[in-house]
């Protein structure tokens, strides 16, 4: 991820918005969200083991004296949301004059900042082939630099089976799962979305495509090479072929949009050449992802 995506003004704007999480939060440590569970924010509920990034002021030192381990007190009303960000790190994401990979990393950084700023817990998962690389669980503003460090180390290569990758992730309790991808994936996308819903996740699909894919400016005899498989194909680009491509692309995006509508998930299509400000303060707000 090249450069600093936040200038001072953008940073200040981010501090005034938050992720709009609709679901009932009934697990996790005390955070910045109100739960519909009975009780007040000072009513004790349960314990869980301490994880890096937790507020050390919530450590129960009496429990540490008894068990030799650090435990966090959980409360009834204010609960954190667990935000899982899944980044498609296949080679096709590294395509375009304005690379989809760069926008994916920027959006992941923004979503991480918003979550940490609201005392939610964040985990970044980069997926490629049938593998998933999982960051440590992070909470608190001081962990934002760790998010950036993880994002900077993501490499985009190979292909991705989103379905197989995400099913390797342990999802315990309610949370939010954000998938950032061009969705040129092997496997069944509908299956993994339904799986996440079954696992009590609020699902957000961010569909990234570049200008070259949305509005290809091609003509004549060309040779196309698949960036993931290396497969090559010679084609003759005509106006009729471009119309067929546009129809297929619309069908592709509409099918994903309709699928997310049926299961109550969020969907947005983003062009990788859009400014990060436009995406966050227009598209995110218009689709209700942030408030």
TrEMBL record:
Organism superkingdom: Bacteria
Ranges of residues in domain DUF58: 46-248
Annotated protein name in UniProt: DUF58 domain-containing protein
